[in-house]
Amino acid sequence: MTRRAFLKVAASGAGAAAVGGCVTSGGGARPCARRITVADTGCEFEREPLLRPFGFKGGYLTNIWQSAAMIRSTGGQRGIGICTHSTLWSDAKVFTEHSESAGNALMFAMTAHALRLLKGQTFTDPVALNDVLFEEVYRYGRQITRHPKLRQTFALNALVGVDNAAWLLYAKENGLTTFDALIPEAYRPALAQRHPKAASIPLMAYAIPIPEIRQAVDDGYFFMKIKIGQPGTQQEMLDKDMARLSAIHAALEGCRTPYSASGKLPYYFDANGRYEKKETLLRLLDHAKKIGAFEQIALIEEPFDEENEIDVHDIPVRLAADESAHTDKDAVTRIEMGYRAIALKAIAKTLSMTMKIARAAHDRNVPCFCADLTVNPILVEWNKCVAARLGSFPGLEGLGLIETNGHQNYKNWAAMRAYHPYPDAGWSKTERGVFNLDADYYAKSGGIFAPLPHYEAMFPKG
């Protein structure tokens, strides 16, 4: 599609419906939202080193790119959105075929392509805009990566900063100052809660020592994400995973929490698609039964690669879809295959697509929670805005669920915290394993509408 053709399609809101003279996407923009014309765009990035190699999907990261996207309207308003890149999570094949920097450069090129397309564009609905951008950026991504089957999450990850910038510009142009006001009517039933607390979920990657896991529990964390699917052959992976589960369960024996129905710590395993057969996963579950850990498994996320279209109705634990639920249509497919939870990633699949996925799951009574991408403190707040409003996860009534592991992995986390508009607010910090979401939190929407001097300085006005 040429740029001219793209602009024509996007400006007309292809596949959308006109309501009160405004373009909407299945209930996207509110009637008579202002038409916003993009005068200029820009993008920049910075690398953030990690404390140690971060392992998952059989690979390791050593640094993570943080990009910023700027969209300025003809009226002079600006929206600046942040994105944390994860080539390994988005498409492990692209990651393994390139150096770490080259893989990130490919994703950043897709971000820049989206912003080039936006110049001169007019829109009224960020959801409809994101739908059109996604199709074109995905096409471009397949071209530059030379992967005709590039995973769709690669394009969505590239669009996070662009989508956030579009939402913030939309908010300014329409006088919206809270996340609640920002949510289009069609998605509000799926985001109707206002939890007073959200469980803060840390991530225990392959290299995290057992004593650190126990210390996290002693510090109040109770719902921990544990990476399984370790490197090696399927048998080697299973042996390592069983040994890891045994060691963790032994270290946490006797630990209790007031937040779960049973009082025991819920276990949350993430395989990132490393298990190739159902039988292998069932062997892991048999081992969990043998050591007395089975009843504590709250969920297992993404056990099988999405290309393995395995029906999972007969697996006796709750399975959650993550990477494979690229879009709302993919989420429905996974639910029909027997998945009983969806991991939402507003910080990896865009807020626009996340709202569509949340609605699809809500309509089918499937619970959701928010998973991390090892994002920066500002993106934690975008994810938290969603997690705070989702229905309670089974067995954990009255709590939102949000994974955040940046504090465990970034070398400069303290400096990154300083970029947060409210770094000293109680609701921005984990206390004894939870975020306390008071009236000030909801009034400020986690600070996502506040100025961000560090990132604004990347785009001098003039």
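[next item in queue]
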Amino acid sequence: MAVRDTLVAPVLGHHLNQPPPVAEQILGHHFARPALLREAMTHRSAAPGVRGGRLKGAGSNERLEFVGDRVLGLLIAEWLAERFPHEQEGGLGRRLAQLVSQPVLAAIADEAGLPAALSVSPGESRAGVRQRATVLADAMEAAIGALYLDGGIEAARRFVRRAWDAAMVAQADPPQDAKTGLQEWAQARGLNLPEYTVAAREGPPHDPVFVIAVTIADKTGDGRAGSKRAAEQLAAENLLGKLKK
């Protein structure tokens, strides 16, 4: 499949002719365009930045993450429709949202060994950025984007179905949206609706982490994620777990 040069970062240097061997092994694909994989494995902190008129962050995996997010959604949706031919849109949608969620992406990336292949700045490396869920999830999406652009949809499909197999099999029933479940729990007991607040915002502006707290009847749960929506879901899951004990 032809790849548009605009998605490759030539300023990273001649070493782009040598693809990251660990990443190739993880993805199970030999890259004809190794620059794509190198870019997918480059965190914003290790990108070239402003150079020759290029914008800060150019050469990082953010553009490939954009592509990979769409490719992953398509492949998981296709797989779900095939696996659950009689299930309606609501159940399929909840399954899809869970399977492409940040925690699942990060867990699969970590299990596959992606942190070892990720290029980050020395300072971010010392800060443990390779283990941050937002970074791992983004890198996984970028890797899928690179895989699709280099090898086409079939190469991406093979990897996704292998890497997501355990997560897919574990979904015996459609997962319930945690925020909806928490709201129903409160309503069934005549309590006020859950209250969500931003307890903290951490990390640099380009890679924030939100800490959300949710409260019902003096019980509190919390969640941390790269977006408020994801952190709210994690907070709801945390509080539901406490309430059901």
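[queue empty]
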